[in-house]
Amino acid sequence: MFARALITLFGLACASAAALVFLPLATLFDPFVRAAAGGMSPEHWMDIFAAILSADAPDETLAAMFHLVWTIVMLICVLPITIVALVGAVGKAQAYLFYAGATGVLAAAMPWIVRAGKMNERSASITAGESHIALILFLTGVVAGTIYWLIAGRGAAGPRRGGWRESQPS
C-alpha cells in the first residue's frame, strides 16, 4: 500500500511537471496565440515586464503576477490530473483513455468551471478563440494523463490474483 502511494505521488509530480512544460511551449509555438499577441518580439515582452515592475507598487504587481501564474498552474497542470488520479485509484481504472481523456476534458473545462463558480453569465458560451485555447488546454491534460498513466495508472488495480479455480490442484 505504501509503495502504491509513493508511485502515485511520483506519477502526479511527473505528470504535473510535464503539463507545466507543455503548456508554455504549446502557447509559445501556437500560431493563433502568436497572432493574438500581435507578433510582438521577446524584447517587447521584456519591456512590458520592466514597465510593470517600475510601477508605483512593484511588490504588489509582482505578487499579483505570481498569484496569476500560480492559479493557472494549479487549475490547469495540477488539479485535473490529481482529480483523475484519485478517481482512477478509487475505481481501480487502468485504461489509458480514462487517464488521458478525462484529464484533457477536465483541463479544457477549467476556465468554464471557474466562470460558473463565479456566476459569470459567459460561463455557457464560447468564442472561436476560446475554443482554440481550450484545445491547447485539452492537449496539456492529455500529456499529463499520458505521463501519469505510464508511471502509475497501468498498475492501479495491482497484480491480478487467481480465483478459486486456480487455487485447486489440477
Structural description of this entry:
The protein is mostly helical and 170 residues long. Helices cover 75% and strands 0% of the residues. The chain has one domain. The protein is built from six helices and no strands. The two termini are 32 Å apart.
Number of domains: 1
The portion of residues forming beta strands comes to: under 5%
Q: Roughly how many Å apart are the termini?
A: 32 Å
DSSP strand tally: 0
Question: Kindly state the mean pLDDT as a whole number?
Answer: 81
Instruction: Give the SSE order as H and E letters.
Output: HHHHHH
Number of helices: 6
The poorly predicted ranges are none
Radius of gyration: 21 Å
Helix content: over 70%
Structural class call reads: mainly alpha
Which short descriptors sum up this protein?
75% helix; 6 helices; 170 residues; globular; mainly alpha
